[in-house]
Write a structure and sequence with these properties.
By secondary structure, this protein is α/β, with parallel strands linked by helices. It has 2 domains: 1-91; 94-158. 49% of the residues lie in helices and 18% in strands. The chain contains 4 helices and 8 strands, in the order αααβαβββββββ. It has helices spanning 3-28, 38-68, 74-90, 106-109; strands spanning 93-95, 112-114, 121-122, 131-136, 139-141, 145-148, 150-154, 156-157. The strands form 3 sheets. The protein has a 3-stranded antiparallel β-sheet with strand order 1-5-6. A 3-stranded mixed β-sheet has the order 2-7-4. The protein is flat and about 60 Å long. The mean pLDDT is 87.
Length: 158
Amino acid sequence: MNDQTREALLIINKTIDNRKKRLFYAIDSFQIQDNWNMTKIRDEYLLIIEKHFSNIIDEIVRTISTGINSLNEKHIYRELLNIFNRFLKSIGIYTILIAKGEKVDEAKWKLIDPQICGECSTNDKDLKDIIKEVLSLPYMVDDNRAVLNGKAFFWSVK
């Protein structure tokens, strides 16, 4: 394992440790009001999860993605991403698959933040709304409620 990979793992560990403290504090401070029904309790609890896990996921996935896109030790980062996603799935946070070359429908547009791409311009009208490259998947909780939108480059038709 090279120094860059060790540093990335330390960043991930520190991120988890710092965010874990904030999450536990928010959960410990969670107060159920007398007039709340089960739907309101669930919604308020999900807001806590969304707020705290979106930051954790974003930071960790960004660090892992940088490693996957590097020249060295891609297999370690891919395995880290698999482990991280399995952990998230075990606590009810899952991904929605988006893929390079996929034409995005209206429902998926709401789950993807298009990123600026300098090399995504084309004259091919058939590439409108087509993903050029997936940067990160959308992370969801409950009934397809976004915790963190995915990120992708799209073809830009002139």
